[in-house]
């Protein structure tokens, strides 16, 4: 990393639920080293309790971009920790630092772990939004399916209920849709990754971890997103 580049990855949770930020922060532990790049997880106070609709996605763009601008001097890279990747293009225009979205990174990581990936969504109404993104990435043929557990972001803190539904949906994606990899379709699911992977026996990608790992690599290589125009 260049001497004048801050040694910090800032992970922004665009919803206002602190429990989600805490879960993301815990998921960062395998990536942390005492003498390594810091990973700081922050909550967007202006966000809704959960980002579950397109209106929610659109509504957090301005405060999220303002957060990126406010922290630009002390960040080596930013991670947007919502599976809709809200404001990712606007944030990339607001900084020369790498800005990574967990949906893009999680899906791309899944393609490296298996031929076909499945997505576990929180709500059925999230699925069209996810699939628009999959198509935009040119990966529709690699997507085995997207199924919902039908819980809100806030309800994800109910561990017994959430975990049971995630196992059920993960098994359906594996057995009925031929998914070889599962992508968790919400940052609020982070705490369940290890248990879910053990239960269904195929790789499970926690997208916040995938994005932070890529951000660490980009920051160490000093790829600062320099624009040519």
How far is the N terminus from the C terminus?
Answer: 24 Å
- Count of distinct strands: 8
Q: Roughly what fraction of the amino acids lie in strands?
A: 15-25%
Strand order across the biggest sheet?
A: 2-1-3-4
CATH architecture of the largest domain: 3-Layer(aba) Sandwich
Summarize the entry for a quick read.
The chain has 229 residues and is an alpha/beta fold. It has helices at 18-27, 54-59, 61-71, 88-94, 102-113, 127-136, 159-175, 193-200, 207-220; strands spanning 8-13, 38-43, 77-80, 99-101, 117-121, 143-148, 181-184, 204-205.
Could you describe the 3D structure shown?
The protein is α/β, with parallel strands linked by helices and about 230 residues long. The protein folds into two domains: about 10-100 and about 210-220, Rossmann fold (3-Layer(aba) Sandwich), CATH 3.40.50.12500; about 105-205, Rossmann fold (3-Layer(aba) Sandwich). Helix content is about 40%, strand content about 15%. The chain contains nine helices and eight strands. The protein has helices spanning about 20-25, 55-60, 60-70, 90-95, 100-115, 125-135, 160-175, 195-200, 205-220, and strands at about 10-15, 40-45, 75-80, 100, 115-120, 145-150, 180-185, 205. Strands 2-1-3-4 form a four-stranded parallel β-sheet, with helices on both faces. Strand 5, helix 6 and strand 6 (about 145-150) form a beta-alpha-beta unit. The longest helix is centred in the C-terminal third of the chain and has 17 residues, at about 160-175. The mean pLDDT is about 90.
